[in-house]
Design goal:
CATH architecture of the largest domain: 2-Layer Sandwich
Structural class: alpha+beta
Strand content: 25-35%
Distance between the termini: 42 Å
Radius of gyration: 23 Å
CATH class of the largest domain: Alpha Beta
Largest sheet: 11 strands, mixed
Helix content: 10-25%
CATH topology of the largest domain: Pseudouridine synthase
Length: 310
């Protein structure tokens, strides 16, 4: 782990960092200067000279790197990445509770929980840090970008571990709602139990042979013509678990661009949200022992035609 950043947050974002490799290992290489190292390691090479000239690369004491220094092994380089334009998510991020220890949000579809890849400023974490003035805000758990619903953040560093442990140890009870095709001949409710794995570099997770690591209770809550609103209760929290389990039943969620088939959707296409929402969340507060319960106010719209993207 790196030392604490010598740079303050900018636009709700922590500074990025690199550490130069050691040169005493077999096969290790050495660059002539620190500039040569940065030019090779950073994708935006055209920005490196500008940032060096502006003093935007600093060491762990906050002193600017000039770039013409001799290469220094095992040294930290801190900097803020240039921000690129992002399509604004056209749905509001709502706050359900703001207390001394927690911020509980009702996240919209299409908004990532934390910065990743092309989604940086249009993320729940960055927006809440900026709007609430909480630089230490951190998610206690995550929802994927296409899933809406209840999301819990801790306000300060000293609270992170206790609340994160609630979710890591499955101490939180979660209920999701989803819309998918209705199959009258399918016996429901049922438990879907199998093994899910997601390999690095693949967008889709897969059901594979082996010891089960994923379990979901699937129930029908309401029928609306050829569609049904399902109540999904995950007993585990594997990546894309609910989406994959429903697709494996032949009931792919409306608006899902990954399951069962990957679709090419433009990043600024907000026309067909995934019909999945983290509707209810309950847990016992690990600090004061109170029962906490939150309900998302987001309602899933019924499809208007059989051709809705699935």
């Amino acid at each position: 782990m790196p030392p604490r950043s010598p740079l303050p947050q900018r636009h709700g974002l922590d500074a990025a960092w690199l550490r130069t490799p050691r040169t005493d290992a077999p096969g290790a290489r050495e660059w002539p200067t620190m500039r040569d190292f940065l030019m090779e390691r950073l994708p935006a090479r055209a920005q490196v000279d500008r940032m060096l000239g502006a003093g935007e690369f600093v060491d762990d004491r906050g002193h600017p790197w000039r770039g013409d220094e001799a290469y220094r092994p095992h040294a930290f380089v801190w900097f803020h990445r240039p921000l690129l334009p992002e399509p604004p998510v056209p749905f509001p991020l709502e706050v359900l509770e703001h207390s001394d220890r927690l911020v509980v949000a009702d996240k919209p579809h299409f908004m990532a929980t934390t910065p990743r890849g092309a989604h940086v400023q249009e993320t729940a974490l960055v927006k809440l840090r900026v709007s609430l003035g909480l630089p230490e805000l951190t998610p206690a758990h995550r929802l994927d970008r296409l899933t809406a619903g209840v999301l819990v953040f801790t306000t300060r560093r000293e609270h992170r571990g206790a609340y994160a442990l609630v979710f890591q140890d499955r101490g939180a009870s979660k209920v999701y709602e989803a819309i998918a095709p209705f199959e009258p001949n399918m016996e429901l409710p049922r438990r879907v139990v199998n093994r899910i794995e997601k390999h690095r570099g693949s967008l889709q997770a897969q059901i594979v042979p082996g010891e089960p690591n994923a379990e979901t209770l699937v129930e029908v809550a309401e029928v609306h013509g050829p569609w049904a609103r399902y109540r999904l209760t995950p007993l585990t929290g594997k990546t894309h678990q609910l989406r994959l389990h429903m697709a494996s039943l032949g009931l792919p969620l409306v608006g899902d661009p990954l399951y069962p088939t990957m679709l090419d959707v433009a990043p600024d296409d907000f026309s067909a949200p995934l019909r999945l929402v983290a509707k209810e969340l309950r847990f016992t507060d690990p600090v004061d022992g109170t029962a906490r319960e939150y309900v998302s106010g987001r309602a899933l719209e019924w499809p208007t035609a059989p051709s809705v993207r699935q």
